[in-house]
Amino acid sequence: MCNNLDMNLAERDIQSIWHPYTQMKTAALPIPIVRGEGALLFDENGNEYIDAISSWWVNVHGHSHPYIAEKVYEQFKTLEHVIFAGFTHPKAVELAERLLKKLPENQNRVFFSDNGSTAVEVALKMALQYWHNKGEKRINILAIDGAYHGDTFGAMAVSGRSAFTAAFDDLLFDVIHLPFPEKNGETTIQHLKSQISSRFNQDKSQISCFIFEPLVQGAAGMRMYSPEVLQEMISICRENNIITIADEVMTGFGRTGKFFATDYISENPDIFCLSKGLTGGTMAFGITSCSSKIYDTFFSDDKMKTFFHGHSFTANPVACAASCASLDLFEEQETWENISRIEQSHCEFAEKIRRNDLVEDICQQGTILAIELKTGEETSYFNSIRDNAYDFFIKRGVLLRPLGNVIYVLPPYCITEVQLAKVYEVIEEFLGS
Ligand SMILES: *Cc1c(COP(=O)(O)O)cnc(C)c1O
Question: Has residue 40 got a pLDDT over 60?
Answer without folding.
Answer: yes
